[in-house]
Specification:
Layout (H helix, E strand, L loop, with lengths): L2 H26 L8 H4 L4 H9 L5 H13 L3 H9 L5 H13 L3 H11 L2 H12 L3 H15 L6 H21 L4 H18 L4 H14 L2 H14 L4 H13 L3 H17 L13 H10 L5
Length: 295
Amino acid sequence: MSVRIVRAAAIVLALLAATIQVTAYALFGAAAARPSLPALFTAGWPFDLLATTGIARTPIVRSTLARAALLRGDDARAATLLAAADPSDETTDLRGRLAEDTGDIAGAMQDYGLVGDVVRARLAIDRIAATDPRAALRLAETFDRATIGRDLPAAVIAQADWREGELAAQVATGDPTDARYLTHKALARYLAAARLDPTQDAYALAVGFEAIVAGDAMLSRDAYARVVANDPQSVDAAAGLAVAQALGGACDPARTAFARAQHLAAQQHRVVDIARAGYSARAQQSLLRCVPTSP
């Protein structure tokens, strides 16, 4: 066995270890072992060595090097590596990370949407939403459009739809001039999420609440009733059902649902507070007409 073959084998083994270490570093940050290969890559020579041997042209090695470059904050090197990388979900996701690192958040959303990286998209969107919910909503829309026609798990698309609905509802609350459009947009996204992933009661609860905001008591009643059937211990679903029934003029069912909500809340050391839950003044008044003792 020649020295060249031995060296090549050693490099390949090192790269496999690097992949494991880089992945651990990406997932757990400072919890990754130190000293470790990601730490080793903070120096430039491993990149140069792999480029000299020609191994860096191998797709898996190139993507591993690009990930390592992103971890060490070397965006220029990552861009060079990714520019010549073969198209794949992994390289697309890495391009999204590079775009995010360099301030092109919309570009990052496009790439994340193409591969369904809802986790990174959500983190970026939430960071923007803390100061500019409308800008965050635009980013969520960009991510959503990028997923169209892609073979992605229904749960991934549902989660993206739900977050877009949350942002639309948030912006509607702070912008009365556009509230009607945004409220219906939020409701449409919640409905889409609930249809895609009916196992998530959070989506149906969102439909129930937003339907009341939109003035559709029947849709709200059906959504809350679905959650009550799936989770009989849900205080929020029982209270929401009471509000929806009251808005629809059905006082007897409203009283029954509200009594159930209070009973469950007492068992769970909670309090049913319709006002604090965010229901409108109209919704609260309707419930009071049916249940005079409701808070």
